[in-house]
Design brief:
Low-confidence stretches of chain A: none
CATH class of the largest domain in chain A: Mainly Alpha
Largest interface: A-B, 36 and 36 residues
Order of helices and strands of chain A: HHHEEEEHEH
CATH superfamily of the largest domain in chain A: Winged helix-like DNA-binding domain superfamily/Winged helix DNA-binding domain
Oligomer: homodimer
Structural class of chain A: alpha+beta
Helix content of chain A: 25-40%
CATH architecture of the largest domain in chain A: Orthogonal Bundle
Distance between the termini of chain A: 57 Å
Number of helices of chain A: 5
CATH topology of the largest domain in chain A: Arc Repressor Mutant, subunit A
Radius of gyration of chain A: 18 Å
Chain lengths: 131, 131
DNA sequence: AGATATTTTTGTAATTAATATAAATAGATA
DNA sequence: TATCTATTTATATTAATTACAAAAATATCT
């Protein structure tokens, strides 16, 4: 496996992701990073996002539509608003769920789990109530 | 909203899904259903899968790669093998997780959640141990 | 620093998954 | 049967992502 070589683009992508709380898509990263690197290619963004996921520096969130990326490394889950589609962090105490299921379930070794909550975010709820 | 009209293709897609335990993708459904309807269009498969999801007769499982579909309506979750990619059912007692989080989390109304477990399935584990 | 080796980027093309559309067909209703 | 409306088919299109080759950037060695 070839050694990972430094690149300014990758560093910038990482920093950009760390500065955001809203789990951007590859395309959002591309749009914003272009201010610093006007010639950056979308392929470069995808490639570096994949690399960062591989090294464990960021996480990929797969859901309806485009994948999203998250630089928060502390264990947590996500909430998606079914109205506006925003994605918020959920720091819920669900630590040992995978472990519990691993003990009870006999068709394989459960190593972890992803939990995606859904519903209505506060902002959409407010708008609905006002209408 | 227009009334739903019977179609042989939709019935066949539903029956096919009910006969399987492995959560096929739209393309797998298309390939197999062609034996009965050689001229069926992939668009028809997608459209009917969406309709069946809307009526609640089947569920859509969004994950890495193509969406998968599941005719089992009893509440359960899924396990994906990170080696072979197979998807298995997990009948785990996680009933009130969404409810619990809804009470503790203040940025919106949590209506439900999807849980995706991952790890190594028994079959892949066996193969790895033999090698 | 200069030369060399290897990775990364860029620009573009290709692929995959899914949706859209319009004419033809099938199902429902009177 | 006649008519109305939904569905299918065939095809085109969009969206998300990956692949590739030449050029540029980074790391290593002397």
């Amino acid at each position: 496996m070839a050694a990972l070589k430094y690149s300014r683009q990758r560093e910038s992508i990482k920093n950009y992701l760390c500065s955001r709380e809203d789990h951007p898509t590859a395309d959002m990263v591309y749009t914003d990073i272009r201010r610093e690197f006007p010639n950056i290619s979308l392929g470069t963004v995808y490639r570096n996002l994949s690399l960062l996921v591989e090294t464990g520096e960021i996480r990929k969130i797969t859901m309806d539509g485009a994948d999203r990326f998250d630089a928060k490394t502390t264990p947590h889950h996500h909430f998606t608003c079914r109205k506006c589609g925003c994605v918020l962090d959920v720091m819920a105490p669900v630590e040992n769920l995978a472990e519990t299921v691993d003990e009870a379930w006999e068709y394989g070794d459960v190593e972890g789990c992803r939990i995606e909550f859904y519903g209505i975010c506060s902002r959409c709820k407010k708008i609905l109530n006002e209408a």
